[in-house]
Amino acid sequence: MGSMIRRIQQDARMAQLVEYNGCFETAGQVAADPSCGIVEQTRQVLGSIDELLSEIGRTKSDLTRVQVWLADIQYFDELNVEYERWLEGFEKPVRACVESRLAGPDYLIEVQVFGQAR
To answer: Which InterPro entries does the entry mention (predicted)?
Structure first.
């Protein structure tokens, strides 16, 4: 018997979240308004992740892994302030954070999360 795959917010290119075999993963999330700085972009990205988790009835405690790409590693400390505030009171996932050129010059951060149902 095949496993069910559920795709959330799917368009011609991709889904924003895929749920399968009790696991889930998001596409890389970027700011809806990339004209602002790293703090606001980080808040927008983490807010998008919250919305996706809510759509499948999961919380941040269900996260197993977070991958972060920064356009410039100089944003590391500012990212961490927002990230730690976002995860306050939740179980912590593993995380990787690297510097990378992103899809456009205005994007300062991209985040992808992975998780599993409890």
So the answer is: RutC-like_sf (IPR035959), YjgF/YER057c/UK114 (IPR006175), YoaB-like (IPR035709)
